[in-house]
Amino acid sequence: MLLILLSIVEVFWIGNTHGLDPISNKSILMGNLLQSFQWGLYTVGIFFIIQMLIGLLLPKVSYFIYKLILSLLILGQISLIFYFSETLVPLGADFFTYSFEDLIETVQAAGALNIYSVFASIFALVLIFLSLSAGRFIKFNFKTTIVFSVFTYAFLLVLLIIPIDKSGGLSGLESNLAENKSLFFYQESYDYFSKSQNIYFDFYLENSSSQRGLVQKEYIDPSYPFLHINNYPDVLGPYFSEFDTIPDLVFIIVEGLGKAYSGPGAYLGSWTPFLDSLADHSLYWKNNLSTTGRTFGVLSGIFGGLPFGRNGFMEKTPVPYHSTMLSLLKKDGYQINYYIGADKEFDNAATFMNYQGVDNLVDIDKFDPEFSKSPSVSGFSWGYADKENFRNGLKKLPNTDQAQVNIFQTMSSHSPFVIPEQDFYNKKFEKFLNEKGYSHPTIKLENYKAELASVLYVDDAIKEFFKAYLKREKATNTIFIITGDHRLPEIPMSTKIDRFHVPLIIYSPKLERDKYMDAVNTHFEIAPSLLAFLQHNYDLKLPETVAWRGAVLDTAAQFESKITHALMRNKYQFGDYLDGNYFISDKDLYVLSDNMNIDLVDKPEVFSRLQNSFEEYKAKDNFAMENNAILPQ
Fold first, then answer.
1. Strand partners, 511
2. Quick one: which of 586, 420, 489, 67 has its CA closest to 255?
3. Which of 248, 239, 361, 373 minimizes the C-alpha distance to 299?
4. Strand partners, 338
5. What is the rounded distance in angstroms from the CA atom of residue 402 to the CA atom of residue 328?
6. Which of 323, 421, 422, 569 shows its CA 20 to 30 Å from the CA of 25?
7. No. of H helices and E strands in the chain?
8. What element of type H or E holds 584?
């Protein structure tokens, strides 16, 4: 009864908060209720059997343990619901893929770990325990007990045998809301710990005739499934005038910069006025995808096009032998500098960057006293806000004639979205909303003031950075690359591919012409494109064989999709696959159209073909990671 009550409260509370109507869309409530029945009957039944066995020897103790376990499970369900209310993504097995330090840092940053939350949890546990204890006042005769027990076990058996259509045609937030959060967490946890570590590898060496896209890769060794001849065309050269010397590269990786709220055609309105103005003088890809739905894969994706492995490339120890754009440029004389206002150890960023031979790695521990940390929640913050990170980085940029790659990774537009000048940006949000007249049929933008105010703040931070950087002597000899690591999940997503949809901007004072491009690309295409540009125009020395997962950036102005890539949702969920105009997400097949819209289609033959291709993709990925077979040493 308590689980059913929680289910109803969750659906109506979160649904109404985010513009969903559970009454008119009964699939959400029914899906959640059926799963709550399944989870409730399952746990009550399993632990009742355990309680009965213990009760043969210790009857009173067994009832106490039984009620305590059920109370903890209900408290866990409440916690998972609160987590979902903040992230709009159910917590799954990715919980086990983060280090204990990363988990504590995340919880502290969200303000969820403090003396008040501890006392509230204890109070809730006692209240739940007393509620369950009230069951002793409900008396059944023996016959009623038998009938009720047989009915519930039979109902549980039906729920376990007959698959529940959890989505019911739902997508995005609706589908996530229809999940029972405890059942989802348990099922993913079971899968995570029960999967065999002995992975069966079965794939063939792909030949160029079976490939689509702008690069026909010539694979050369089945022992290294991604190894191929380095023969990439220069697609960027025609857009630039000649640089004075080999150009500097500046990367700005923006936390949570989703296309949904940035750039032309953003369906939530664009909240990045500076980036929009910069796009008018840049190469701009509106249909660009990150390759992971969280930050853990952005560095390995952009700079290396590297395999994912079980939990993301940067979680693998020991680190497989590999090269990236950074390590190759380092060998050719570039200096590599990385700036972040947070802890460099989060998501193993420091390990990755040090492997590439980074010259200067500046994180939360290397800020001068003149800079102030972000406002804190419960005494803890992620570190220094983006304006401070850019200012500190500009101050510490080496003044040298040596070619440089300077990487700035932002973090202010991250939960809990507490930023400096909060009142100013809250008012700016309200003014922006009123002047622009932004609205959405189901998403109430007013409910996401904190998130969108942080986006406005980051946009201003990038504007100030450009204003300062362009005064530098080497600015005219620089290429700037700006993209997001993923879309913010805290704002409801419209489709299952929306979490990956991020803009890509390439700007330089040496750019001869701007262009808006509608072709589909991913982060995997960035490194090969830039390296090919440098190789063809500035005699950059590159190896004869490489293992990039990506091709080159498609610069077509019209919509087209010529890429085939898997996308990793989080550190555990690996169920998204893009092949041309088709997209698989779990067990559903979609057709892709402009603005990364997807429509559900029923084409069993196409789904089967893509599913087989996806399984082969994963087999190659796992083989390369588990056998240290990305590149020969």
1. 240
2. 489
3. 361
4. 361, 407
5. 15
6. 569
7. 17, 17
8. strand 582-585
Instruction: Count Cα neighbours of 485 within 13 Å in the Cβ-side half-sphere.
Output: 22
Q: What are phi and psi of 462, to 5 degrees?
A: -65, -35
Long-range CB contact pairs, 571-574, < 8 A, 24+ = 571/94, 571/97, 571/98, 571/294, 571/296, 571/311, 571/312, 571/315, 572/92, 572/93, 572/94, 572/96, 572/97, 572/188, 572/192, 572/311, 573/92, 573/93, 573/94, 573/188, 574/308, 574/618
Report in angstroms the alpha-carbon separations of 509 from 191, 270, 299, 401, 503.
Answer: 51, 24, 25, 18, 20
Rounded to the nearest 5 degrees, what angle is found at the Cα of 536, between the Cα atoms of 535 and 538? 65
What does the pLDDT look like over 275-305, one tens digit per residue? Answer: 999 999 999 999 999 999 999 999 999 999 9
Angle (CA) 293-211-283 rounded to 5° is 55
Strand order in the sheet with 515-517: 360-362, 335-340, 404-409, 248-254, 478-484, 504-507, 283-285, 515-517
Do residues 390 and 464 make contact, with C-beta atoms less than 8 angstroms apart? yes
DSSP string, 323-391: --HHHHHHHTT-EEEEEESS-TTGGGHHHHHHHTT-SEEE-GGG--TTS-BPPPBTTB-SSB-HHHHHH
d(CA 587, CA 163): 13
Report the distance separating Cα 427 and Cα 43, nearest Å: 48
Q: Which structure tokens are listed for 358?
A: 């980074």
**Residues 6 or more apart whose Cβ sits within 8 Å of residue 490:** 86, 87, 88, 415, 417, 448, 451
Beta strand residue intervals within 126-244, DSSP E: 228-229
CB atoms within 10 A of CB 610: 21
| 83 pLDDT above the threshold of 60 | yes
Q: Are 502 and 302 in contact (CB under 8 A)?
A: no
Going from the C-alpha of 474 to that of each of 470, 512, 536, the distances in angstroms are 8, 18, 22
Question: pLDDT for 376-422, tens place per residue?
Answer: 776 667 899 999 999 999 999 999 999 999 999 999 999 889 999 99
C-alpha to C-alpha distances, 234 to 508, 533, 537, nearest whole angstrom: 17, 5, 9
β-bridge mates for residue 248, sequence order: 478
Determine the Cα–Cα distance for residues 495 and 575; give it in Å rounded to an integer: 14
Helix or strand run (H / E) with residue 516: strand 515-517
The Cα 107–Cα 415 span in angstroms is 10
Rounded distance, CA 108 to CA 419, Å? 16
Question: From the CB of residue 151, how many other CB atoms can be counted at a distance below 10 Å?
Answer: 10
Pull the structure tokens for residue 97: 């893929």
